[in-house]
Design goal:
The complex is a heterodimer of chains A (803) and B (171). Chain A has 803 residues and is an alpha+beta fold. Helices cover 27% and strands 24% of the residues of chain A. The two termini of chain A are 31 Å apart. In chain B, helix 2 (91-98) crosses helix 5 (153-163). A 5-stranded mixed sheet of chain B has the order 2-1-5-3-4, covered by helices on one side. In chain B, 32% of the residues lie in helices and 15% in strands. The chains are: A alpha+beta (803), B alpha+beta (171).
């Protein structure tokens, strides 16, 4: 086992940005003082429970809630019939662009999920009815008294099966269950390159469905104020502004300015808490129906697994073409994506563009093409999951590269080196829709090979065999599109809505600073890192800066935290706002210092006259003077309160190389990850300690998919892995310490040179580990094993059984 | 005689609490809903995640797997009993802070409660000349607590720091 080395910065940062400051959020979390949704206890709170369908597909013949309403403590039971004016939950990412498939307004999208299902249930857990009672136990008990009569319908749980002739049909408005057929790249050129190739390799891959599993299940508290007609939603959300927009404007039809959404401390998300769910609308509707009593709902673990969006789930046929001497000439992918029963908020886009446009990874490939069939099935709706889309793309490409290397008998590291996009080709158009901003891929690969001790692997393999272990080495590289986004660009991807981010900085008369942002942390230490950004720009102590987010009443508009965007979207907005503050202080400083503006310098938090440092005002003096506003000319407004909406010119593209070393036990089939090296490039980073934590967690998440995690549905559409006894999450003993390295290529697309960081290290581990295990078993003729690589599966392959 | 409520006393964070509990009430429900001690969390309902770990007569236990009634008369320590609000961190908490052993923090109180027993034992043994727990031992001890954010590494480093023989300042 190795020890984790700290990420290596090429140079010491000049200011507080880039330093590994301790997280200011940690002490409160360590004392258990943070308030999560389940901890909110408003006076008069009543409790909601949701009746989810026990069957995967059925027509509802009748629902009777009378008996439930007679039970002790029960205040109300409701079904779809109680909310006739409520619109379905919108899907706001339509693959292929808005015009090509659907009307530009999301109302009534084919297959859109109703808040409560009235006619047909389409997955186990599909919400049918709700009960509100004085206690959570009373509410839960009352669900059993609701009688529902079902007429069972046939079930389909696989995307490819759902598209077959005669498959069960989920939505009348979506014949054939096809939500979208989406393509990118050049089909003709790719087909021609494959046909003409010296070497082609093909794989059939299952990127299995996995469950994100934040440790905090979702929850919501809805409060209606009859005096003002205003609604407040407290919810475990990654995007309070986004949820406000979707709920008020598109679902409930209540005025935008009468809905406030508050994200308290959120216990992890990894993508899943950015989605709109029925419960968020229901707690608000029921609070109004009950005269304003706060209505609280907290999910169970099994409830979460049957309702919160799930991830991955592609079945793919992939092809790589190349020359005998190791030059890749084409890559092609046909993917069947399982969207589940309804289009989730952005699930269809995740399954298509986020995956398809990324398939060529770090390689300079002349021809590439991807097509995705996105289909409805009787499973929980699909959505984002840490690394989503990018992880599926990296998996297929990196598996293909290893197959190709084996086919032509070349070292997999050498094949990669020969095909990396060269440094001088940036900005690089990958032919699939992305234009990579910057990178030095060869440096990154070489750093990873060196840190992992790649050259010494043959000796280690031999030594392991002597111990009854098969040692395997797997490399995986990746490029992850981050920094969503350029709003116009996203509209071309079919995103219904802006994807910019915003920040406000208010300098108080006493010189303290409040930063508010539209994002919302789900554990990323935003309070620490965003304070660093503002303090660095303003030249003040980070301790003077307080950060607020997560409350739509207090924060400027913003889209939230997803896709590793906060540091490359919200942080630049903060930096640009701080620059506005500084510019204003230079103009005002001319008045205060009694010199022309071009004689004023902003430095170390204050202003002084050029060449005369004694003629100066400190930050605190300036803050107070701006608060008084005395003597300011009309063109300078008093006070210091600025806002910026940042919409970048393009995405940013972090990348990296991960190398897994595994030992497979010949007797048990057990795979142990013994070494893991990750060299990621996220451009300039704000806080190395925070980022290292996210990278370590991301890698373990990826190892989970490779080795143990799988959402298993039976033939009736029942999720059999519906609790943490039947769904395996990695535990502390499942990974060694990692060796982390870093390269730094700043992005030109934001003023901090930042690239996404939070989830990027989830992208390559599954490919690295499967490559390593296949390497360990290659002499047995094993060319591929589907994830998860459970001991039994590997044990059978060790004994020569066919997959 | 009311069979739907059981009169009992728990000593919670050093204070006696007398109440009548339903026989099927879980200890975690009493702590969170009955006593307002929300530092103890519920993450999985099946005893897998460890967010509900408290100390029961000194031993770390999962409070979602224990009936309140079965804990009658016991000393219960929750995360609220470990520090004062806004107060100084214990040596373990300080070590976890220095290693950033937390991200979203939802699993953190349960981890602090579970690891407290390990660290106390290790320190007692260390004082008697014993070696600090090894990395595999720490990871083994942590298997009852799930964390999806950190991948556990910073937590393991925090425990190593907390158990290190030459503890700086002894905080």
């Amino acid at each position: 086992m190795t020890t984790t080395t700290p990420a290596q910065d090429s140079q010491e940062p000049a200011g507080v940005l880039g330093r590994p400051l301790d997280s200011r959020e940690d002490p409160g979390l360590l004392r258990g003082e943070a308030t999560y949704v389940a901890d909110i206890d408003l006076p008069g709170t009543v409790h909601m429970a949701i009746l989810g369908s026990p069957v995967a597909h059925a027509r509802i013949l009748s629902i009777d809630t009378k008996a439930a309403e007679q039970l002790p403590g029960v205040l109300k039971a409701a079904t779809a019939a109680d909310f006739p004016d409520v619109m379905p939950l919108p899907c706001i990412w339509i693959p292929g662009g808005v015009e090509s498939h659907f009307p530009p307004h999301p109302y009534g999208l084919p297959g859109a999920r109703p808040v409560l299902t009235g006619d047909t249930v389409r997955h186990v857990g599909d919400p049918i009815a709700v009960v509100v009672a004085e206690t959570p136990r009373q509410a839960a008990a009352a669900l059993a008294a609701i009688s529902v009569e079902y007429e069972p319908l046939p079930v389909v749980t696989r995307a490819d099966h759902a598209l077959a002739d005669g498959a069960p049909q989920l939505h009348e408005a979506v014949p054939g269950n096809l939500n979208a057929y989406w393509t990118c790249g050049d089909k003709d050129r790719t087909d021609a390159a494959v046909a003409a190739a010296e070497v082609t390799v093909e794989l059939d891959l299952v990127n299995q469905r996995t469950i994100n599993s934040p440790i905090e299940p979702r929850g919501a508290v809805g409060v209606y104020d009859p005096a003002t007609g205003e609604y407040t939603l407290h919810a475990s959300t990654q995007g309070p502004h986004n949820h406000r927009f979707l709920l008020s404007a598109l679902v409930l039809g209540i005025p935008f300015n009468k809905l406030r959404v508050i994200a308290p401390t959120v216990g992890g998300s990894f993508g899943t808490k950015g989605y709109l769910y029925p419960d968020m609308a229901l707690v608000l509707l029921l609070s109004k129906a009950l005269g304003g009593r706060p209505v609280k709902w907290v999910d169970t673990r099994t409830g979460l697994m049957n309702s919160t969006v799930q991830g991955r789930d592609h079945r793919q046929h992939v092809t790589l073409a190349g020359t005998r001497d190791g030059r890749i000439t084409a890559v092609r992918c046909t993917s069947y994506a399982n969207l589940g029963a309804y289009p989730s908020t952005i699930g269809p886009g995740v399954a298509t563009a986020l995956m398809g446009r990324s398939i060529s990874g770090m390689y300079d490939i002349p021809a590439a093409f991807c097509e995705v069939y996105a289909a409805f099935t009787n499973t929980v709706p699909l959505g984002a999951q840490r690394g989503s889309g990018r992880a599926e793309a990296a998996f297929l490409m990196e598996r293909l590269v290893d197959r190709y290397a084996a086919e032509i008998g070349m070292d997999p590291a050498e094949v990669r080196r020969r095909n990396l996009v060269p440094k001088e080709k940036f900005p690089y158009d990958n032919g699939l829709g992305w234009t990579y901003d910057s990178g030095d891929y060869r440096l990154n690969l070489d750093r990873a090979l060196e840190l992992s001790g790649y050259a010494g692997m043959p000796a280690r393999k031999a030594a392991a065999r002597a111990r009854g272990k098969r040692l395997g080495v797997g490399i995986a590289t990746y490029v992850a599109v981050c920094g969503v986004g350029p709003s116009t660009r996203m509209s071309k991807e079919g995103m219904l809505g802006g994807t910019w981010e915003s920040a406000n900085i208010r300098v108080h008369p006493t010189g303290e600073v409040t930063v508010t942002v539209g994002s919302a942390s789900t554990g990323q230490s935003h309070g620490t890192v965003f304070a660093q950004v503002a303090a660095d720009e303003l030249g003040i102590d980070p301790g003077q800066v307080q950060v607020h987010e997560g409350d739509t009443l207090k924060a400027p508009y913003g889209q939230g935290t997803y896709g590793s965007r906060s540091y490359s979207m919200a942080a630049p907005a903060i930096a640009l706002t701080a620059r506005k503050i500084k510019a204003k202080l230079v103009r005002a400083g001319a008045v205060f210092l009694g010199v022309p503006e071009d004689r004023v310098v902003y430095a170390d938090g204050g202003v002084h006259e050029v060449g005369n440092p004694d003629n100066a005002k400190t930050f605190a003096e300036l803050a107070m003077a701006m608060w008084y506003g005395w003597g300011l000319p009309p063109e300078i407004e008093p006070a210091l309160d600025e806002t910026t909406h940042f919409d970048p010119p393009d995405f940013n593209y972090p990348f990296g190389t991960h190398i897994a070393v595994v030992e497979v036990d010949e007797l048990t089939g057990e795979t142990e990850v013994v070494d893991y090296t990750a060299v990621d490039d996220a451009g300039n980073i704000g806080n190395p300690k925070v980022v290292a934590g996210q990278i370590e967690g991301s890698i373990v998440h990826g190892l989970g998919q490779a080795l143990m995690e799988a959402a298993e549905y039976d033939e009736n559409g029942v999720l059999v892995s519906s609790d943490l006894e039947s769904y395996a999450l990695p535990r502390a003993a499942d990974a060694p310490f990692f060796t982390l390295g870093r390269t730094v290529t700043p992005s030109p697309h934001n003023p901090l040179g930042a690239k996404g960081a939070g989830e990027i290290a989830t992208v390559p581990p599954a490919a690295a580990v499967v490559n390593a295990v296949v390497d360990a078993l290659s002499d047995l003729g094993v060319r591929h094993i589907d994830m998860p690589l459970t001991p039994e599966k590997v044990w059978r392959r060790l004994r020569g059984e066919a997959p | 005689m009311d069979l739907t409520r059981i009169e009992l006393t728990l000593h919670v964070n050093g204070r006696p609490e007398e109440f009548a509990a339903p026989p099927n009430e879980l200890l975690v429900e009493r702590l969170r809903d009955g006593l307002g001690l929300t530092g103890t969390k519920v993450g999985c309902d099946t005893g897998q995640c460890g967010t509900c770990v408290v100390r029961l007569d000194g031993r770390s236990v999962k409070s979602c797997l224990i009936l309140t009634a079965s804990a009658a008369g016991s000393e219960v320590t929750t995360i609220e009993g470990v520090t004062t609000p806004g107060g100084e961190l214990t040596g373990l908490q300080e070590a976890l802070r220095q290693e950033h052993g937390t991200q979203c923090g939802f699993c953190t109180p349960g981890m602090v409660m579970a690891l407290g027993e390990l660290v106390e034992t290790a320190r007692a043994e260390g004082a008697a000349g014993g070696p600090p727990p090894t990395e595999p031992e720490i990871r083994e001890w942590l298997t009852g607590n799930l964390c999806r954010c950190t991948g556990y590494h910073s937590v393991v480093r925090g425990v190593q720091r907390a158990c290190a023989p030459a503890e700086p300042e002894g905080r």
